[in-house]
Design brief:
The chain is built from 12 helices and 2 strands, in the order H-H-E-E-H-H-H-H-H-H-H-H-H-H. By secondary structure, it is mainly α. The protein starts with a helix and ends with a helix.
């Protein structure tokens, strides 16, 4: 009797877990279908090529212009700057925690990094306005520090927990036999880390970076508060920029319903969806490679 109950429970939970997995796929498909459906209404009024390559985003002008190139370049610039800061800091911190930190220090650092991930983005944006922005303004001789560099610094802070956590897990998962073999031929700890451990953990580290990129691309409140929101082609990190997420957040609340401008924001969201999806898929690809690598 107990055997039959156990088998019945196994079958029931199998279908429950399968249903939850399918539900997630259905939700993702529903979001994509909603975005594409509303984007089609926009592209009936605006040519897709003009939308993607347009040099100006000004939907409230007398003659509205819907060019998203400044928004794409701004999003790319801020994300690129964030990764320049976050990648070396994240990988270096992960390597230190895994290979150099003592158990007491490790028990302090890991919870602190996880707590950093829990800080609300609006708080980080506020710190960017009152702390980082004045420093950047003084350094560059600008009237204010609300620019791409300010947003990049804050996004780097927000991406660091993801990069550090996944990269540290990847480094920690490298078999001890690799280290022992390296030490056995006379390599130092630094040489072992640089030439053995990091290359062996490379798939997991790359996946950490890609997930950090996805985190940076999709952030809204921080860049809305800290980048100046100027929808212009950026010439450098000290220019004010307006990212795609900030544009959607600012304009969606005030745009008239079912207008070209309204549907244009859905078109922006569709492009952003695919950018984030690609970053996450690339990260998932390398995560799967890491699992197969250690299973071999």
């Amino acid at each position: 009797m107990k055997y039959k109950v156990r088998i019945s429970l196994d079958i029931a939970f199998k279908y429950i877990f399968k249903a939850t997995g399918l539900l997630v796929l259905c939700l993702l498909g529903g979001i994509l279908a909603l975005l594409i459906y509303n984007s089609i209404s926009f592209f009936m009024d605006v040519k897709p090529l003009d939308f993607i390559t347009g040099m100006e985003w000004n939907p409230t002008a007398k003659n509205p212009v819907y060019g998203m190139l400044p928004l794409i370049l701004s999003t790319t610039l801020v994300t690129f700057g964030a990764m320049i800061i976050a990648i070396p800091l994240g990988i270096g911190t992960a390597a230190f925690i895994s290979e150099y930190a003592g158990s007491r220090l490790k028990n302090i650092l890991k919870p602190a990094i996880e707590m950093l991930a829990a800080v609300p983005s609006v708080v980080i944006g506020f710190l960017g306005i009152v702390v980082v922005s004045p420093g950047l303004a003084d350094m560059a001789g600008l009237p204010n520090g609300l620019n791409a560099l300010n947003g990049a610094i804050l996004l780097a802070v927000m991406a660091l927990p993801t990069i550090i956590t996944i990269a540290e897990d990847a480094i920690h998962a490298v078999p001890k036999t690799y280290k022992e073999a390296s030490y056995g031929v006379g390599a130092t700890k630094w040489q072992t880390l640089r030439k053995v451990i990091i290359p062996a953990a490379a798939p997991g580290i790359i996946s950490a970076i890609m997930l950090g990129v996805g985190r940076a691309i999709g952030e809204t409140m921080t860049v809305l508060m800290a980048t100046g929101n100027a929808a212009l082609i950026p010439k450098g990190f000290f220019d004010s920029v307006k990212t795609m997420t900030a544009t959607i957040a600012i304009e969606m609340g005030e745009v008239p319903y079912q207008t070209t401008h309204y549907y244009g924001l859905y078109a922006l969201a569709t492009v952003l969806f695919f950018m984030t999806l690609i970053a996450n898929l690339v990260g998932e690809y390398f995560i799967n490679r890491l699992r197969k690598y250690h299973a071999a």
